[in-house]
Write a structure and sequence with these properties.
Endonuclease, Chain A; 33% helix; two-stranded antiparallel ribbon; 7-stranded mixed beta sheet; alpha+beta
Length: 243
Amino acid sequence: MWLPRPRNLILALVAAGVLLALGLVIAQDQETLRVRTPLAASEPLFPDYLARLVGRAITNGDDYVVLRNGDEAFAAMLAAIDSAQQRISFETYVYKEGQVADAFTRALVAAARRGVTVQVVLDAVGAGGSERADMKALEDAGCQVGWFNPIRHSMLEEINYRTHRKILVVDGKVAHVGGLGVADYWMGDADSKDHWRDTQFEVRGPAVDLVRGRLQRPEAAVSADHRCRPPHLGHPIPLLHYG
């Protein structure tokens, strides 16, 4: 059996490393935004200044519930889905096969079957390892499933543009935002190295409209005129258009 000479092997590894580094450099966002403000967060004018800066108004009359770790957050999110009567909008980076994904799939399928409009946006990389059966169950129930920024050979500069949003909006009345994805890593109460600690917020009030607006931004709302193939299904799925 022919084996490469040590020198040739080293050169090949160096060349591969250079190409990989070059690809990562190209894939990075070249326009990093750094914001500096003359106002301290403690100054009375800072809230209005921040609102103008991000293009969102300060809202009053909102209620927030802090949900710590999976035991609290998943139960509240699933309860919101179970209570939905009109529309569920859900976007997440991770949707990994396991007990948590099974629970969310069952809840979303049940909602769709009772007539609720269910729209799901998954990241083509983060949720690329999702269970085929979960995606098929969602589709068969009538859920609209879209894949954000699917990988194509001609889009090296955009390959690193992912959606890390984790947003659930139900009937325009309650929203969940935070750091939990749909995976068993977040189960439990951070009680072991296999169960991650994270925080989620349940929001009610005028701020829900602002959260819903994040799902309607151009980078999240991809026209239904475009179609892509999810990582493991053989037929194209239409991407979502919110509105």
